[in-house]
Design brief:
This protein is an alpha/beta fold. The chain is 44% helix and 16% strand. It has a 5-stranded parallel sheet with strand order 5-4-3-10-11, sandwiched between helices. Strands 6-7-8-9 form a 4-stranded antiparallel sheet. α2 crosses α3, α10 (350-365) runs antiparallel to α11 (370-382) and α11 (370-382) runs antiparallel to α12 (387-401). It is globular. Bound molecules: adenosine monophosphate (AMP) and zinc ion. Adenosine monophosphate is lined by residues 27, 29-30, 38-39, 41-42, 67, 239-240, 242-243, 270, 272-273, 279-282.
Length: 474
């Protein structure tokens, strides 16, 4: 398998540390608000990576943190604490906010068929581990205390900018709002490991430490949590590209300084989901959530399909037109699958299985090329083979793609109903809907309303969504 490594800026042959096992870490959400569909793009693509590794036979252990303390408004050490901002906004306690948005995050993941990592660890569970690591860094001379806080001393490293040395274009600095200079820092890039003195007098969560009552910096949590659950060597670390600097750069600095050896071999960064006005971000206030898409009539899996159609290392522009395109294609795909009619007595066509599985695996082995993997799904439908083989392959590919290919198609079938009379009736309704669309296009709203009323008199309710008109029958 070839994987692009942000550390070397090259596609590399993937080689795990311990044969057959993959240790994988994902930066989890900062739970002060709902995840937006940009965040979820990252988690969808990481989910595909994890599932492809499992599909390829690796025994994967994946760990994710939940950032419920320490992440300030700027990814550097300035600005308001994000959790505190959420608590103030909703007049709730920080822990209530954390619980509410952690649950909401996993509900969104479930709707998008994103598997929950093997270990999910909130930062507030690991204060002892953070303190041990910060103390270790002080003992080794990589950290210093100034103005009550503990800082990492980046001047002690031979190389600090590990990601952007080859191509500064690829460096994306986190959103910086109201950056103020911290005069305690010896070097511009030094970062806080432990806060005691800060401008957040009302910081809700504080813990005792050798340096006074305070709270951890954001970066230390991922280093310490991964060390706790994955040990000293890691295969793959994932995150959105905005995390490369400063977050991941700082994780590498402190982990390698603490451990005294190379820590993580592959860095998998997902490029952003953008809107026409730039990167989608929580801090901008208004953003798109999975629930909002549902309210507008979209199946969340149409969004997953939309994401899979493009490569994770390309920026993806979100617009309803683009999503509509994906939703229509997804719907058509399910309809084609629903039309398959497998026969129990048919034999699996092993030649077709091998050929098509080979193409599917090759697509994902090539740096997780999901759009080619989706093409492999269409190739299954086009293949001259029996439907039993097709269903077998679709089930197999869906272990990685998680698009509910078979389940979704079954649901379509159920909605259509079985009896022949109803099929004729469904045909009639679809025709009337098409006529109504034409009428609306011609601005003949009286005719459009007449069709709606006539259908209503036959017990049919119409629902206009962005994916087209849907209907239900009493
Ligand atoms: P946060 O909850 O802000 O800590 O972010 C959670 C994850 O979403 C991180 O891996 C971020 O890098 C990623 N992320 C943030 N904004 C976007 C975006 N617009 N598109 C894709 N991923 C993003
Ligand atoms: Zn992290």
């Amino acid at each position: 398998m070839q994987l692009y490594n942000s550390l070397t800026h090259k596609k590399e042959n993937f080689k795990e540390n311990v044969p057959g096992k993959v240790n994988m870490y994902t930066c989890g959400p900062t739970v002060y608000h709902f995840a937006h569909i940009g965040n979820l793009r990252s988690y969808i693509m990481e989910d595909v990576l994890e599932k492809h590794l499992r599909y390829s036979g690796y025994d994967v252990k994946r760990v994710m943190n939940i950032t419920d303390v320490g992440h300030l408004s700027s990814d550097a050490d300035t600005g308001e604490d994000k959790m505190l901002k959420g608590a103030k906004r909703e007049n709730k306690s920080v822990m209530d906010i954390a619980k509410f948005y952690t649950d909401a995050f996993f509900e969104d993941c479930k709707k998008l068929n994103i598997k929950t990592p093997d270990v999910v660890e909130p930062a507030t569970n690991c204060i002892d581990e953070f303190i041990t690591m910060v103390q270790g860094l002080l003992d080794k001379g990589y950290a210093y205390v100034a103005g009550g806080n503990v800082y990492f001393d980046t001047s002690k490293l031979d190389e600090y900018y590990v990601f952007n040395k080859h191509d500064s274009e690829e460096l994306m600095v986190g959103v910086r709002e109201g950056v103020e200079e911290d005069t305690n820092k010896r070097n511009k890039n030094d970062f806080v490991l432990w806060f005691t003195k800060s401008k957040f007098e009302e910081q809700a969560l504080k813990w005792d430490s050798p340096w006074g009552v305070g709270y951890p910096g954001w970066h230390i949590e991922c280093s310490a949590i991964s060390l706790k659950h994955l040990g000293e060597y890691m295969d793959i670390h994932c995150g959105g590209i905005d995390n490369a600097f400063p977050h991941h750069t700082n994780e590498i600095a402190q982990s390698e300084a603490y451990l005294g050896h190379k820590w993580c071999n592959y860095w998998f960064h997902v490029l952003h989901l953008n809107t026409n006005s730039g990167k989608m971000s929580k801090s901008k206030g208004e953003f798109l959530t999975v629930s909002l898409l549902e309210e507008k009539g979209y199946n969340p899996l149409a969004y997953r399909f939309f994401c899979l159609q493009s490569h994770y290392r390309k920026q993806l522009v979100f617009s309803y037109e683009n999503l509509d395109g994906a939703a229509t294609a997804y719907d058509k795909l399910l309809k084609k699958i629903a039309a398959l009619n497998p026969c129990d007595s048919d034999e699996l066509d092993m030649a077709a299985v091998e050929k098509l599985q080979g193409a599917f695996k090759a697509a994902l082995d090539n740096d997780i090329n999901t759009s080619l993997a989706v093409t492999a799904v269409y190739d299954v439908l086009k293949e001259k083979t029996n439907d039993k083989t097709k269903i077998y392959l679709l089930n197999d590919f869906d272990k990685v793609l998680s698009l509910d290919l078979i389940e979704g198609a079954k649901k379509l079938d159920e909605n259509k109903g079985e009896p022949a009379e109803l099929d004729d009736f469904a045909k009639y309704v679809e025709e009337q809907i098409a006529l109504r669309v034409e009428a609306k296009k011609a601005k003949n709203f009286a005719e459009a309303d007449r069709i709606r009323d006539e259908l209503a008199s036959k017990g049919v309710t119409l629902l206009d969504t962005r994916e087209g008109t849907k209907w239900t029958k009493e």
